[in-house]
Amino acid sequence: MSIKSELKRKALHLTGLIVPLIYLIFGQKAAIGFVAFALIIFLILEPFRIVEELRDKVKRKLGIYVRDEVIALVERELDAISREHERHSIGAHIYFTAAALIIVCFFPRDIAIGAITVATLGDAIAAIVGKPLGKHRFKNGKSVEGSLAYFLSAFLILFLLIDLPHAFVGALAGMLAEFYELPPDDNFSNQLAVAFAIYLFRKVVF
Questions:
Q1: Terminus-to-terminus CA distance in the chain, angstroms?
Q2: For the chain, what is the domain count?
Q3: pTM of the full predicted structure?
Q4: CA dihedral for 38, 36, 23, 150, sign (positive or negative)
Q5: Residues of 136-160 as b/e, b for ≥16 C-beta within 10 angstroms?
Q6: What does the pLDDT look like over 78-90, one tens digit per residue?
Q7: Which domain holds residue 162?
């Protein structure tokens, strides 16, 4: 994926910040309702994205109301920001939303807001730094520069939202989850790694 497409993907990914913002302003119930609704909509629409026959039917119906050039442009843009494996399988938005729902339901307020914010911003910053500036790369394609960018941004976010010890633990857990791309998808595992690490640290140490 080109750096231009990667930036577009991360810009779309940043819409995930709506979740902690809603939690912060309106509380847990509103955040749960928003994320649950989004997940239901995504699950309904996902087959139309993955299955070519269904997608073609939608395109034919849309063609009655929307110009073919507009439909083709949207399809090209979506293909450009999709990972290769996502074109015929579950997309990152499903994993991200599912993890966010688990976190807002079962973790304390500060941990939920911190974990989702870190997973959203940290991932974007790591890609923005790592793709063009990463000079020291590992076998999996990740770079030292990208990983450090993730850690530092995550640390700063968690330090501002919680405190220094929790920031270090959460940032480290998130960086490792991002680096190893833990299954089923890093958009799922990254949020949960940060949340679980901070929660367990709090239970054991504090």
A1: 43
A2: 1
A3: 0.83
A4: negative
A5: eeeeeebbebbbbbbbbbbbebbbe
A6: 554 455 655 667 8
A7: 3-205
